[in-house]
Amino acid sequence: MTPAQKAQQESAAKSAYDKSKADLDAQHSAKSNQIKTDYDAAVKKTTDEVKANQTTAEQQHTQEVQNATKAVSDAQIKVNNLTQLNQQKQTELTNAKSQLDQAKENSKHTDSFDNSTYDNASDPLIFLSSASW
To answer: What backbone phi and psi angles, to 5 degrees, belong to 120?
Structure first.
């Protein structure tokens, strides 16, 4: 083999090697890019699912807190209304007892029929004589 043939053969081998290396590098790069793309997609999908579940759980928790807060508020309103009604009834009871005590006191001091009670009455009294019957 002549030195020119040897150089040509080495050049062809080097060319074949360089082409093969470039092809393998391109395949490696494409495969690496595909793996990265698949990995990024899987991470994004998982992250989105976690966020969705977290958001759903947070929304559910928030709704439960709102429902409980409303229930407490409604119960407090009922308690306030019942307390007010109780106070009103207590006042009415106290007034009724006072009126009863006053009536008892008045009846102790009155020995006979007292017309002064009827003088101040709001309903007029009609007196009928026996001649008008």
So the answer is: -100, 5
